[in-house]
Amino acid sequence: MLRRTRRVIFGLGLVLGTVLVAPSAQARTASVAGLADISCLVGSQTGHFQPGLTYTPRPTSFTGQGNVSGCVDLTGHGITGAAFTTNGSGTASCLTGTVSSLTTYYWSNGRSSTVKNTGAIEVKPDGITVLVLTGTVEAGQFTGSTVVQTKTLLSTDLTACLTPQGLTSAGGPVTVTLTP
Prior knowledge:
Helix content: 10-25%
Largest sheet: 8 strands, antiparallel, barrel
């Protein structure tokens, strides 16, 4: 009799657990605290600046394109990577700057997200330029989510910033994270 009572209680616990947990699990796969919903840590991008960047801050516009892969997707949407395009402007130099842009991500699941970004250019040790863009998805999949894109801009023309034309293109690794 005691064994049968335990089985009934255990069975009720399973049923109640399924009923109470299932709706939220169906609505969305839960994020692990402290982790992004989507993390794409392998990627590359190229960017073009007009006018080129010099050591004197000045208004400039830019375009960029790239891709990310190897994404960890905790949303359950099957995202493994994305291609992206960026258009923006701001006041920038080879050393510093603030920019705003519009980036569209074309996710591997066939959907897209358009993100309005703002960011800052910072020069790190050894002259490596890092651009961190933070934005909100304004249209498409994941509307309302926050996206952080970190770009490391590497230039093969180390003297371009010294010329009147300036640095007109740069590229390098990029990472993307998305949180609710």
